[in-house]
């Protein structure tokens, strides 16, 4: 064992982590490897006992069981075919206004987010369904791709979100309250995205032409019928999951089980359910959850060693030394999270940063729920901010060659939405009730 000050250990651990991630190591293995090396160097052999305790804690966490259930629900919704009918209905209603298809894409993504909870599925569905519709009708690449990445990234914010399920236990906050706080926060972003698109299209009408009359001339009764039948299944699914949590009928894990069952019934109602679909959904769920689980375990090991060696106190002192009082410290925390979001996976950020910054927020007198949601909304930017921008990569992966869309087109289209997220953070800082009002009315 080597004797070293917490300051030196902090530099060594973060330095090793940067080197391993920069070398291409998977995040979960990099975090676990740094924890093991640092534990053996600066702790002692009892580090293995600590790892066992932490692994046991993760695997027996009842709330964490909701993660694979919500992943299953999202994949089953994707396979049900519900999304195609939903976009077609929104397309008819909004196609008559300039930029209407881009607005429809945002609200399509909002509704998908409330039924899927996984960003990969949301962005992929928007890219396959909404993007070609916009490009075929003369939409500029920037606004078309930006609407897809921004709308798709809402899948990690609007409940049932995997991020919220992982965040809750780390900050010792009810996942149900996080769900209720994230819902209005996500709607705020959707409204701001819509306003931006409408203003941009009014100023640059050539970027988003109005649909020709022959595509819009559908009887009102038919449009109402299509809207009702398209919205009914996702509304029932959202009420089954979020309604049971809001009214105190079920915990998030129980609600996740209900959601998984409801999504399966929905697939059967759309006549898409088969043994192959069930098998593929189970395999996809297992694969996705395995990746999440490895990162969670590695980050838990890293955080345990980091805090156990006194490094958390070093970071706290550094952050608290920022000028400008409590709001200066808050700005520094948000800036650190934003920068980290461009470099590493959001799971790593949540599991590393939350145990460190949550006590700091408590010291400064910030409401824990409000502070948590501000961090989570901040992390929305990480999905749109290169070089580590999930939404951009997912959309690029499904773009067809004939669309002639490259990564620079998607980046240019996504960057304005980063500014809108910053505006949303300012609004939520000035009016914290946007976040705190609905959770305060939950039934215990």
Walkthrough of the structure:
- This protein has 444 residues and is mostly helical.
- The protein has helices at 6-22, 27-42, 47-59, 66-80, 82-94, 100-116, 119-136, 141-153, 162-171, 175-203, 213-216, 220-246, 252-269, 275-308, 311-320, 325-341, 346-364, 368-380, 390-398, 407-430, 433-436.
- It has one domain.
- Helices cover 77% and strands 0% of the residues.
- Helix 7 packs antiparallel against helix 8 (141-153) and helix 9 (162-171) packs across helix 17 (346-364).
- It is globular.
- It starts with 5 loop residues before the first helix and ends in an 8-residue tail after the last helix.
- 48% of the residues are buried.
The dominant shape is: globular
- CA radius of gyration is 22 Å
* Alpha-carbon distance between the two ends: 49 Å
Structural class: mainly alpha
- Tally of discrete structural domains: 1
Count of DSSP helices?
A: 21
The run of helices and strands is HHHHHHHHHHHHHHHHHHHHH
Number of beta strands: 0
Summarize the structure.
By secondary structure, the chain is mainly α.
Topology:
Layout: H1 6-22, H2 27-42, H3 47-59, H4 66-80, H5 82-94, H6 100-116, H7 119-136, H8 141-153, H9 162-171, H10 175-203, H11 213-216, H12 220-246, H13 252-269, H14 275-308, H15 311-320, H16 325-341, H17 346-364, H18 368-380, H19 390-398, H20 407-430, H21 433-436
């Amino acid at each position: 064992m080597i004797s070293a000050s917490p300051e030196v250990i902090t530099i060594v651990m973060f330095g090793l982590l940067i080197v391993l991630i920069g070398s291409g190591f998977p995040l979960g293995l990099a975090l676990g490897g740094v924890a093991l090396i640092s534990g053996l160097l600066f702790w002692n052999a009892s580090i293995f006992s600590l790892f066992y305790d932490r692994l046991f804690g993760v695997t027996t966490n009842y709330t964490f069981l909701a993660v694979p259930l919500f992943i299953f629900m999202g994949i089953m919704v994707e396979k049900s075919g519900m999304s195609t009918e939903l976009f077609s209905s929104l397309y008819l209603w909004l196609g008559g206004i300039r930029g209407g298809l881009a607005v429809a894409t945002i609200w399509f993504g909002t509704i998908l987010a409330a039924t899927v909870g996984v960003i990969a599925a949301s962005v992929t569905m928007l890219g396959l369904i909404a993007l070609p519709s916009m490009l075929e009708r003369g939409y500029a690449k920037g606004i078309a791709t930006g609407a897809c990445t921004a709308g798709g990234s809402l899948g990690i914010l609007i409940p049932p979100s995997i991020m919220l399920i992982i965040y809750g236990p780390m900050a010792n906050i009810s996942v149900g309250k996080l769900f209720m706080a994230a819902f209005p926060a996500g709607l705020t972003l959707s409204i701001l995205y819509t306003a931006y698109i409408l203003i941009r299209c009014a100023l640059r009408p050539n970027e988003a032409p109005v649909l020709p009359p022959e595509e819009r001339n559908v009887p009102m009764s038919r449009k109402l019928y299509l809207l009702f039948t398209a919205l009914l299944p996702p509304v029932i699914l959202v009420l089954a999951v979020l309604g049971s949590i809001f009214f105190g009928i079920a915990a998030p894990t129980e609600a996740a089980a209900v959601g998984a069952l409801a999504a399966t019934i929905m697939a059967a109602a759309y006549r898409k359910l088969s043994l192959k679909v069930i098998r593929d959904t189970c395999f996809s769920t297992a694969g996705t959850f395995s990746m999440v689980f490895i990162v969670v375990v590695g980050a838990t090991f890293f955080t345990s060693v980091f805090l156990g060696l006194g490094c958390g106190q070093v970071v706290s002192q550094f952050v608290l030394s920022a000028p400008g009082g409590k709001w200066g410290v808050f700005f520094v925390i948000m800036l650190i999270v934003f920068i980290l979001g461009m470099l590493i996976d959001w799971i790593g950020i949540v599991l590393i940063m939350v145990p460190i910054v949550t006590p700091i927020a408590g010291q400064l007198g910030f409401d824990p729920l409000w502070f948590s949601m501000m961090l989570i909304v901040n992390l929305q930017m990480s999905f749109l901010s290169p070089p580590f921008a999930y939404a951009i990569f997912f959309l690029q992966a499904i773009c067809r060659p004939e669309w002639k869309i490259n990564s620079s087109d998607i980046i240019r289209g996504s960057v304005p939405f980063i500014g809108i997220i910053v505006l949303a953070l300012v609004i939520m800082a000035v009016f914290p009730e946007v976040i705190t009002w609905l959770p305060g009315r939950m039934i215990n």
